[in-house]
UniProtKB/TrEMBL annotation:
Residues 8-148 form the Ketopantoate reductase N-terminal domain. SUPFAM superfamilies: 6-phosphogluconate dehydrogenase C-terminal domain-like, NAD(P)-binding Rossmann-fold domains. GO terms for cellular component: cytoplasm. It comes from Halomonas daqiaonensis. Keywords: NADP, Oxidoreductase, Pantothenate biosynthesis. This is 2-dehydropantoate 2-reductase.
Amino acid sequence: MTPSTHWIVGPGALGRLIALRLAERVPVRLVGRRPLPARQTLVSPEGKTREQSLAMARTDALPMEVPAVVHLTTKAHAAEAAHATLAAQLPSGVPLVLWQNGFACQPALTERHDGPVLCATTTEGAHVQADDRVIHAGHGHTFLGALDGSNADLARALARTLTDAGLPAEAVDDIRIRLWRKLAVNAAINPLVARFTIRNGQLRDRPFRPMVERSINEVAAILAAEGVTPPGGSGLEGWRELVWQVIEATAANRASMLQDVLAGRVTEHEAILAPLLAAASRHQLSAPCLARHLQDLRLRTQKLAEPPTTC
């Protein structure tokens, strides 16, 4: 029998959004470290609710079935460990789709996985309201492709499946560039909203607007040295237009990094900021704002790991 079930590994907001949408078209199994209610509710951006029962599994008790596709939707810092757990139990050749922010784990897992690997970058917005309820905060678009441009037929087929399920998607042969572009936007927005616990739209006002501009300047210089252009290819002004366009379109949103801060979770700062600063170092460029963001978020992570003090 041909495998048909899509495994979604990482039942956070994005994972459950993908699972609940795909479940209308294909068999789905949601895989996580802890049990969740099988009956899940998805609230659309228009406020409509829909309930769906999902097959569940825990990462330490996977079923014997061979999945058609594995969607890895964990946070970037957890992706490699999650893949290691899965890889020991999967036969060779199972396609893997990486949905992580930033550009840290994708090259490593592309090399490590024994099968086709696609990377996804998406502007779909979602957040968890409860163990059985997910809010689809805003419609977006998803791009899919392999880092080396291979597996185009697989990317096109999966893009059709996602689109048919209500998550518009497109197969592309330049996913590496698109990952860098999303990383650039995230680097200009997420550390600031996380640090000051504000919504995206508040970045338009002082004192935050000049901070965004400084981050854009640093990102633009780094990516120019890397040969990565913004949509339209117009240098610094292109990056400025892209970042402020995203801020305007997501003004009411709580960025994923802010959601992590509010929930007391580790953020994806390493996946978003560290690749940019590594590139800056390669090209002997200064990026003090980005470096400060990374330092602050690393200090926060250290504090989260410290045991509580006792009297």
